[in-house]
Amino acid sequence: MRFRSTRNPSLDVGFEEAVFRGLAPDGGLYHPIDNPDLTELFRGLPLGIAFEEVAGRLVEALFPEMADPFAIAHRAFPFAPALSTLPTRVKSGDGPNAVGVQSKGKPSPESVSILELYHGPSCAFKDFGASFLATVMEGFLKARERRAVILTATSGDTGSAVAQAFYRKENIDVVVLYPSGRVSPLQEKQLTTLGDNIVALEVKGSFDDCQRMAKEAFVDPELSKRITLTSANSINLGRLLPQAFYYVWAWAQLRRRENLYFSVPSGNFGNLTAGVMAWRWGLPVSGFIAATNRNDVVPEYLKTGRFNPRPSVSTYSNAMDVGNPSNFERLLAIFAGDWKGMSAMIAEEVVTDDETLQTIREVYERTEAILDPHTAVGYLASQRFLADHAGAQVVSLSTAHPGKFVEVVEKTIGVRPELPPALSRLLELPKHSVVIDNTLGALSAFLLDHFA
Ligand SMILES: *Cc1c(COP(=O)(O)O)cnc(C)c1O
Predict the structure, then answer these.
(1) Is the four-CA dihedral 273, 278, 281, 286 of positive or negative sign?
(2) Predicted confidence (pLDDT) at residue 65 exceeds the cutoff of 50
(3) Distance, CA 79 to ligand 1 centroid (Å)?
(4) pTM exceeding the 0.90 threshold for the entire prediction
């Protein structure tokens, strides 16, 4: 596969270059030039195939230049998605837990399946992209006998997926900048307890300071002469593409050729874009539902054809509080700027905070399953969609474990969801961070001192 910038068709690069650059030099996003036809591959997937096997076959088909696709899949995915069905009427008696654990109702012809994407190390779907990116970067660097430093600024969540994914990868160090006192205690533990090749810099300042410092470091000539600095942010193709794998896996479990839809809780629209890519490669999907909170720039575009980015507002599904979704540019590229084409394939649903809480409450009371606020947005969207699409089946993506959003969930249903063991373990470990000033000078000094 070759890639080019969404802004300049003449910039044509391979996967390795796209991965290390992240953003194209003209500020555009890298995007596949041709869509491979994988219809035969999809048809040949046996029912019940393991996720790792699906991932291996897709890596082999998409990146023929990669030496050992199945070893890459094996290393990148020590965790897997799961598919469960949320019973529509019956109440199960297994007690409170995450959706998948006790929801064993029979799928009805018109039903919502839950695609659980939170079984990775940070208990959110971003683990799939981050882990794949870390694995391919490690492979590329080792082959060239080079080292690199991943520099990333975080307001909490994405930084932890990145830190976990790159933990103990060879030839790579990770420096995470986070605003002191402004991330949750759990998030701070996720960033600061790993150690080894992961360094947490606790910045005396805001998230905006952290982002500015990282941006300044990337363009600093002195630093780039002495250290290979690279980013691992969510626009990186190495994070985007592997997200297509679980749509394919879910399809292979259900084997429905018609009337199958995916509902995707969306913010920056990377997850949904990856699903649309799988469809472009030939996956028989009837459509997607872009489910957002009040940050509804894309739903508005789908309804009106006008794209009007604006400052984000904060909601309970805060990983989706995005006012100018960067992957919109990729969606436009896929549909060649055709609004009608895009809105024929992507339905939209906007869910308010009140509706999010009502959904968490309603599902809990009916089934005892606990949804996190992001999953709840996608689930309500699925139900609304089903109400006027008789005979459809919707796979609703569950993007995070409810235990990550204890406060919202507890105040809604009066029950404290359990933290997954992978995370509760961290609360016991000692924090290691380096406190620095909110200046490029402070960051440069640290980087040169440790990595030059
Ligand atoms: C990042 C995130 C989203 C939004 O995904 P996008 O790819 O940015 O649309 C949804 N839910 C959770 C829990 C997230 O962390």
Answers:
(1) negative
(2) yes
(3) 18
(4) yes
